[in-house]
Structures are given as structure tokens and as C-alpha cells.
Amino acid sequence: MAPRLQLEKAAWRWVETVKPEEIRQEHVELAYRVNLPACKRGTCRRNCKGNPNCLVGIGEQAWLGDIDENAFHNIDDPNSERRDKNTFVGLTNLGATCYVNTFLQVWFHNLELRRSLYQCHNSRTSPSLSEYEPQSICEHLQYLFALLQNSNRKYIDPSGLVKALGLDTGQQQDAQEFSKLFLSLLEDTLSKQKNPNLQNVIQRQFCGQFSYVTVCNECGRSSALPSRFYELELNIQGNKNLTECVTEFLKEEKLDEDNRYFCESCQTKQSATRRIRLHSIPPTLNLQLMRFVFDRQTGHKKKLNTFISFPEQLDMGPFLEGKQDQRCVYELSAVLIHRGISAYSGHYIAHVKDARTGDWYKFNDEEIEKMEGKKLQLGTEEDIAETVKSQTRKPKCSKGYHCSRNAYMLVYKVQEEENTDPSWTNVEVPAFLQRLVDQDNHKFEEWCNEMADMRKQSVDKGKAKHEEVKELYELLPARDGEPYEFIPLDWLKKWLEDSTATKEIDNALFLCSHGKLHPDKVADSKRVSLQAAQLLYERYSGGPRMDGASLCRECVGQRCRVLRLKNQLNEDYKEVTNLVKRTLSGEGYWVGKASLRSWRQLALEQLEEDEHETKHSNGQTNGLGNGDEMKTFNEDIVCCHGSLSILETERKLVSSEVWCKLREYFFKAPEFTQNQESCQQCLTLEQEEKDNEAVSKMMAMDQKNQLLNLFNEKNRPTLNKWPQGTDVLYIVPLFFVDEWRKFIRRPTKSSPVSNVGNTLLLCPHGGFMFTYDSLINGDGQHYNGHVALLWPSEWEVISRLFIVDQPISIHCFKETTLSGPTTQYTTQPDICWECRESFLFQQQRDLREYTQATIYIRKVIEDQRMIKEAVPELNASSSEAEEEKEEIPKVDGEKDPDFSQVSPFTHCSYTSAAAAPVTNMIKLGGIRRSTRHRKLRGEKALIVSANQTLKELKIQIMHAFSVAPFDQNLSIDGKSLTDDSATLGSLGVIPESIVCLKADEPIADYAAMDDVYQVRMPEEGFKGTGLLGH
């Protein structure tokens, strides 16, 4: 079928030969495309929107033919969350609790620990109490183990235990610290049990003994300090395998020089040797591989990604001293893994051996995978966010050994003799816990049944819809000569899509102003049989219905008239173009040149507006353009008073023949004959404006001649060296001088200045705020940018030319005393000391207490010189040059402590448009310069606050310059900034400060920099959690 535009054109081709008054029913049906042939399935790849009879590709493909039941719902099979037979149960990751999940799985597989934990009872676990709910940490752990053992779920939620512990689920913590604290908490809980067999379960399972043996080199005296351990912390740096790690742990250490040992026999400090002597090893041996170490250079933890080899069978006999009857051969039972190169991020996984079958499993939160064949690579997991370049080649391992760069804890269990008793591996869940498990399993089964019912309902509904669609789709096509109705295409698509509940049929947007089907809406609707329409309205309701009588003859007639005019427009345009070129003879008419240039476009827009007039109010607009564009022909020569514009260059005289042609399209256009006079009001205003400009030029010339030095900034008085020949100087706001100069330069574009506005420089009591010395050297350095000094002769002229609200002057008195000549300076009005002290106090406070202020970090090279100091940054704002060139004052009181405290005192108004203080700095009597900070190459701006620490600033600098905090040497005004815990306010870093950065050579260990990047706030650890008794 032809494209939509071709169908649109073909539907109205008849207008070329038919006038509006000659329209018949056949023309109306052509406009509404009633008789277009319907498309057949297979001939159209997509629906023909321009053909109301095309019912292909509207969504029917999904319903015709056989349909799989799963297509009728989006509900997953609830049995996918059911635990498979002979599998283990996973644990949900609550955000960042993977480190907790790994240890819980390891402890659950410790059968002796699980069996002992089940034996813990309290008064609430009595069989007669059926409403038992776990409350303490130990009770939650019991319930969690019972669920892991007998739950029907594929994975369970550990929220109860995590909440009881008070852990932050969104923050990853130190896994090794969690292990120590949790076992300590469990030991303390079990020690309070009445059953003596439970009181020392943790000690029996995890506790071993060693002693620190020190031997004096002088007298040979040996002293031993016994100690218990629950895990051995093994250094891995510089070691390749587990045996080397244990050997280093037990090796002899020399105590000499400052680290000498006080010998009881010698009664003095002596050189000595010290080593650890292992006496007994627990049945469950926890070996902590110290992957996470403290880096003194960075002040943070970092991860050692060193490969360590470890055996499946470990003989601890060679390391044990005494008690030769102990079993010393251990078998690997668990490997705890940290994926990631940083100590502050990553993911925790556990590889655990099933005590019953000897099979290995990977526990990754909710996912559990059996490890066999090639997958049985203990301690091996792909790293997170690690590039190929940073990967170290894995060393080869012999049979019975495994190698890992991510394992951080190894759990070995003593090798037991063959035990055929099944009760040894069977751990029974107590009745009070099994009741809770049964309740949870019952809830799970109810949920599964509910999901299954929902799936069934969706399938039943889908099957019913399937039958409905197959029935109705066959009835949809309207046959020739039979009654029909129009249905919106979007509604039909949604009915066939069935992703949401089908709403009623709404045809309101398809009606024209006559209440019938608009011709433009035919492309968005489909013509269906009356029988199908009747069934759809019965089932889904809606309206108003659009049948064969809804074809609008009025809209078709209007469209016919407009289209005919459109066809005529091109011919008229050519004719008008030729007529305009001819010499004018006889009476003419004024036409705007802009209107004449664009009259064809304006006419076309007018015709389109007429074409859409019949649309309902919710239809489209004609889109004539933006508000700045001309909407009415000839409006460009109409003045604001509604008369002919005085701008003769903007209009052209055309013949009456041309005007008549144009009037056919713009019958409402304003008409001006050749003899029409221009607007008298506009002429009067034009003359007044010329007179005012002449007056302003004369005024500016007169003022410039009287104050020539002030205008040219020549022969200006200064306070640094009091000028000879006068004992008084006058002060005015620099803003007044700037506005005056602006008027002198462009008198016709700027308003004249009438008021000096000196009250702007005074306090509320009318007193001056600054002494002579402070204006030169002290706290008035910012204030100097707001005052200008005048000679007495200049002040006399200004007093005569402008309104002076309050004179301000500085007087110099020279006296001769016994000690020699002295000079004193006073101001008029006098200084208000009360307001000045308040101002100084507030100024210092503002420098100490600021938020969201800008400072600049400037990177220096080895010789301490600024990088290309003389060259401003290329991408600096070009407006700086414009600001200095045009001398446009800008409000910036917030960055000016002096002025911000003075300006609120009074409200001074100028007659010019801008009435605000400026921040352009000026040495009194010197050359004016811009105060905007000029950024240099190698310099960047940072937003900081006074209460921010230096450490936090260094982290910001790290992001901006890619220099690690420990490589940063910061200074301000030559003073080094070294105290990381000090605030910027206390270090003297104030707004607009320039901090110099000298960077040391970068480190090679980028993982350490990543660690620093991760640490924004001090580590809280497990502070405030149940692990520390809170």
C-alpha cells in the first residue's frame, strides 16, 4: 500500500476539479477513504495508518494461532524458589552483608557447634509455649541454623539476626573483626548456660594454647608467658605458601638496642630472643591470612593481592611442642574469599566442604553451586574491577594444593577416624525451633499456592481473551455496501496488547466542531463492521459512536476551499512578483517590505489556520510560530498608536492591482493609501527624543570640561603620600564616578547622574567607619575599591552640579611639638567607633565561619614557581576582558566583608538603571583593575567550608589533580599545612585564598590510592552494635 502522505494526497485529488458548492457524497467518501481496498495478511509488514480499512499489524499476530500458556502471565514459577533435594539453603544479601553470610555458612557446617547451639534453652522454649519467638542474638542464630537445615526455601532472609546485632546493612565491615567479635559474644552467651557441656563449647572447638618464650642472652634465663588463641594471624607478605607463613609466625625474634628485655635475674635490660611455642591446637583451626594491613604511608588499610599456596591436608606436628599424643593432621574444610583489589570494597564468598559427603560448595549469598571437576579450584574467584594489566600470573600448584590471591581465612578441621555411626553427622533440630521452621514452611507453601492461583487466573483470562480476539478479529473487516463504524486505532492496539486492563472506547478527541468525525482523524482510526462494533461497545462501552452518518460534509467543503486556494497561491505569487517590478502608475498602497517578502508564507499559514478551524478545541493549533514572528500581513508598518509608521525605509508603494491580489488572502490586513500621512504622535516623540539627546550631549560636554582630570583619571590625589598645597580631600563613592563617566562617554545611551549618594559610606548613626591608616594599610583594603578621592576644587564643582546628601572629607593637621613635627588626620563626619568595632568583629568572624566558599589550588613545579604564572588559563571567561574594557560595575557584596557591612546601613538610590556598589579594586588615586580572580594554568577552584578538615580538602584535591593525599604538600602564604585533623578556618584558609600544591612522585600501588578514595569518613567499625554489648 502507498505511504501515508500519498494516501492523503490521493484522498483530496478531486478538489482540483470540484468547487465547494459542487461536493457530493462520493467526494465525502473519497475524503474519508471509505472505499480504499483492505490489506490482506502477509502483504503488509506493518499497519497502513493512512488506510482505515487496513486491519493488519495492529497486534493481532500474537493472538492468531496456538499460544503458550506462559505468554498469558509474567509471574515466575514459585517453585523456582523452592529448595531442591539434597541441596543447601542460601542467605539473602541485605545490601552489604555478604561478609556476615559467609561466616554464618561456615559456622553452620561446623556440626559440633550447631549441635551445641541447638541445646541452648531458656524458660521461653518450653514445649507448652507454642508462641515462641526468638529475641536474643543467640536465639536468632538458633532459628537461622534451623532454617538453613530444614527450610523449604531456596534461600532465607537473615534480617532477624542482623537486626538483633544492630549491623548497618548498607556498610561493609571488616570480616575478620566480625568473626572475632561474634565468636567472643557466642562464648560469653554459652558460658552462662546451666549445662556444663555447653559452657566451654567455643573453647573446645576453636581455642588453642601457645606461650611467648623469652631467653636472656646474658644469663640464659628463660621465661614463658602462656596465652590462648582462637585463630592464628599469619603474615603473607614475602611468603609463597602456608608452611612459610606458619614458620614465620613461630620464628625466633631478636630483642636488642631500644627493644631490649628486662631480665629478672640480671635485674637490668639485656638483649634476648623471643619466639612463640605452640602447645595445643583446637579441633577447628582458623588461620587468618593477613591480607588487610595498615599502610603507614597512607594512614589507611590496603589489601595484599599476594598468591598463597595451601594444602588440602595440613600436618601441624612439626610446629607443635610437647603433648605428642595430639592428633596433628588437619583437613581443609572452608576457604573464605574476598573479591576485589581494595580493602574498603568488594564481595565475600565462602568455599565450604560438606562434613557428611566431603563435597565442596560455593556459597555466594543466595546462590549455591557444587564445585566439582574443573570448578574445584578452592580460593579462586575472578576479581572485581581488575584490569588485565594488573593481574599477576597464577603460580602452578601440585596435586592436593590450591593457590589463591583472594583467600583471607582458611578453616582446617582435625582429621577424624572413620566413623560409620550416622548420628555423628545427623544433627536434630529441637522441637521448639522446628515449630518455627514449620510455620515458615507453611507460609512459603501458602505463597507458592497464591502465586500458582494468580498464574492460573492470568492463564484463564488470557485463554478467554484469545477466544474473544479470534472471534471478533474475523468480524472486524467491513464489507462493501454494509453498515460500518470507526474505532480509534490506539484503542484497538491496546485491546490486542492486553498489557493493561482495556478501557472504554473514547472517541471525543476524534470529533470536529460539528460533532462528527474530523477528516484528519481518519488516519488514526479504523473502519470496522457494524456487527463487530456492536460487540465491542457492549463489552467495553464508550462513545460517541461514529458510523457512516458521522462523515462531516462541512469540514470537507472547508478543506476543499482551502486546498483550491493553496493551489492558486503559487500562480498568484509569481504574478505579484512580476507586478511589483513594474513602474507604478496611478494610485498606490503602502505595504511593509517584510510583509511583501514573506507574504506567500503568511498566506499559507492563514490558509492552514482556516483549514484547521473546524477542529475541536483539543485539536492541533496552526503553529504560526513564536511571538517574535509576524502573524498579520502589513502589521510591520503599523506604529504603536495604530497609524502608519514614520519609518519610510521599512515600506514600499505597490499598485492597486497588487493590493487587490493580496487582499484576497489578507482581507483583514491594515490598509494605507499613498496619500496616508504618517503618525503625528510618533513624529512629535521623535523630535522630543532628538532634543533630549542634544541636551544630554551639551550637559556631558559641560561636565567633562569642568572635571576633565577626574574623567581621564589624571593628577589624582593619594593617601599614601599626602599631596602638597591642601589640608583636605573629599571622598565620594566610586560607583558614582563610574556611572558619571559612563554618562559622559555615551550621553545618548546612558542616563545622567543626579545624586552623589555619600550616605552609602556611612553607618546608621551617620558616622564614618574608617580611619586614615585603615584605608591605606588595614582592614579597609577591600573598602578602597568603593571610594574615590577628590581635590577641593573638584568637590566644589560636584557640589554645584549634583545633589550632595552628606559631604565626607579627610583633614590633615601638621603641628610642631617638642618631639618634632607631627601630622594628624581626621574625618568629617567623625568616626563611629562603636560601629567600627562591630564591623571589625564581624569581618573576622566572616573569615572564620564561612560555607560554600571558593579557594584556588595552584600546582607548583620543583623550583616552587607557579606553573606558567604569567599566562592566564585559556578557557578563562572572556567576559573578564569585556568587564575591564566596558567597566561595567557588578554587585558582589557577599565577597567583600567591608562593603557588606556598610551597604545595608542606608538605601541610596541613583537615577541610573543600576544602583548597586561595585567591586572593582583601585589603589586610591591609582589605576583601576578588575577584582575577578584570574586563574592560571595548573590552578583549579574548589568549594570548601571553614569547618572542613585538611584531610577532606586533600581528598577533594585528589579528585581534581589525581594526586594522592600522602603525595600532597600544601602551603598558604609560605606556611605549610600539615595537620590533617585541623579545620580550614583554624589554618587561616579564607575565601579566595590561593593554596599551593607541590606533589611528590606518584606511588606505584594504585590500589592504595583506591583505598584512600573509598575512605571519606572515619571508620566506626562495629561501634554501637550488639557485637560490643550495645
Model description:
It is found in: Cytoplasm; Nucleus. The chain has 1030 residues and is of the alpha+beta class. 31% of the residues lie in helices and 18% in strands. It contains 27 helices and 39 strands. Strands 5, 10, 14, 15, 16, 17, 18 and 20 form an 8-stranded mixed beta sheet that branches. Strands 36-33-39-37-38 form a 5-stranded mixed beta sheet, covered by helices on one side. A hairpin with a 2-residue loop joins β17 and β18. α5 crosses α11 (431-475) and α14 packs antiparallel against α17 (656-665). Residues 385-390, 614-628, 778-783, 863-931 and 1003-1018 have low confidence and may be disordered.
Major β-sheet annotation: 8 strands, mixed
Quote the distance from N terminus to C terminus.
77 Å
Which radius of gyration do the C-alpha atoms yield? 46 Å
- Return residue spans where pLDDT drops below 50 for at least 5 consecutive residues: 385-390, 614-628, 778-783, 863-931, 1003-1018
Fraction in beta strands: 15-25%
Helix and strand composition category: alpha+beta
Secondary structure topology:
Blueprint: H1 4-11, H2 25-31, E1 90-91, H3 98-108, H4 111-118, H5 137-150, E2 155-156, H6 159-165, H7 175-190, H8 196-199, H9 201-206, E3 208-216, E4 222-229, E5 232-234, H10 242-250, E6 253-255, E7 261-263, E8 268-270, E9 272-280, E10 284-289, E11 292-295, E12 300-303, E13 308-311, E14 313-315, E15 329-339, E16 347-353, E17 360-364, E18 367-371, E19 401-404, E20 407-414, H11 431-475, E21 484-488, H12 489-497, E22 505-506, E23 525-529, H13 530-540, E24 542-543, E25 546-547, H14 553-581, E26 588-592, H15 593-597, H16 599-611, E27 651-655, H17 656-665, E28 672-673, H18 680-706, H19 708-712, E29 728-733, H20 734-745, H21 772-776, E30 787-790, H22 792-801, E31 809-817, E32 820-828, H23 833-848, E33 853-859, H24 879-886, H25 897-902, E34 921-922, E35 928-929, E36 939-944, H26 950-961, E37 968-972, E38 975-977, E39 994-999, H27 1006-1014
Parallel strand pairs: 1-2, 5-10, 22-24, 33-39
Antiparallel strand pairs: 3-4, 3-9, 6-9, 7-8, 10-20, 11-12, 13-19, 14-15, 15-16, 15-20, 16-17, 17-18, 21-23, 21-25, 26-27, 26-28, 29-30, 29-31, 31-32, 33-36, 34-35, 37-38, 37-39
Helix pairs in contact: 5-6, 5-11, 14-16, 14-17
